[in-house]
């Protein structure tokens, strides 16, 4: 029996899921991150990668024929020709690229998705300006690219989901002409379709992890697209909201929608488009004020059919990406009522309003009309929040068939990256 391994590297931890050819889960493993200002992220990810595989039963590892990995969109690394990091990774929500926005305006097309302080291209330009390096001797990779390299040993390969914010054009399946004129060309990765086999695991990896020598490692995807692939979506008009550390919206659409003014971009998915955006609001803000136990206890005291009058824009620090794309946009968390349950109600309601605003904006700009929303991430378990969101969205809100992004990545490894959706 052939088995398929998907690994998801999110913001708070990593997870592995093994499935068979029928999509049935055979094994799962988790690895939580203990984040701090001193965290060595590259070592943490490498340790998580090895530990996740080792947690899979040994006899099962010998049946794994394909592996795929997803990572957080916009998390990037710079390494030498041997794959050793020469700078610390820059995480997905790091806004240091704001200093390069004027430079991006001069070189990129006006509506390009790279026009963001957190885009991969903005971070690459920052690396170049702040590092004394020779481009020909280095590789610029996304988190999922580098982790896959640790398994198959081949550098300089990415997928067109991760490479979108680097400037790659998924409609033409090539870098755009304006990028060909830049000195960064030698450092850009080769881009393949997500789920494309790259190579077998190295002999050392096969021996150390107990994998079969002919186990193939495939190109990956982003964590939010992996969650989409796990959801059960089949038709244009259906969407997935990932309620994790951040708020990510993905709507399956006949039409491609791009608008850098609002942080909106589209990923290619077969003959259709996955259009949406990612906001910095979400679970990270909630956990700043409440523990998981408090969230559960207080949520039960909220009447979800009663709209909260509190109008917040919950952020931990200034700056959002979608539906407001402004690196200086201020958080709004006042007034704070004396009763914690009222404060939580206001936070849940306000995040739901941002979600609804995002989907309304996508449709106003030409995306297929929203018919239902699947939900992934930790927030999917909160029934009170689900009812609040359903009231705001005015469409059915249902749980994803599988909520683990790693399940979607396992499907990608199995070949569902060439997902055939019902295009009508």
Structure description:
The chain is of the alpha/beta class and 424 residues long. Helix content is 30%, strand content 21%. The chain contains 13 helices and 17 strands. It has helices at 41-55, 58-61, 101-107, 120-130, 143-152, 177-180, 203-209, 223-231, 283-289, 292-299, 340-364, 383-393, 405-414; strands at 3-9, 13-20, 25-32, 64-71, 76-80, 138-142, 157-159, 190-192, 197-200, 216-218, 221-222, 238-243, 247-253, 265-269, 272-279, 372-376, 397-399. The strands form four sheets. Strands 1, 2, 3, 4, 9, 10 and 11 form a seven-stranded mixed sheet that branches. A six-stranded mixed sheet has the order 14-15-13-12-16-17, with helices on both faces. A two-stranded antiparallel ribbon has the order 5-6. A hairpin with a 4-residue loop joins strand 2 (13-20) and strand 3 (25-32). Helix 11 packs across helix 12. The two termini are 35 Å apart. The model has no long low-confidence stretch (mean pLDDT 93).
Shape: globular
Biggest β-sheet strands, sense, barrel: 7 strands, mixed
Number of helices: 13
Percent strand = 15-25%
Count the beta strands.
Answer: 17
**Estimated structural class:** alpha/beta
The low-pLDDT segments are none
Mean pLDDT: 93
How far apart are the termini? 35 Å
Oligomer: single chain
The helix/strand series, from N terminus to C terminus, equals EEEHHEEHHEHEHEEHEEHEEEEHHHEHEH
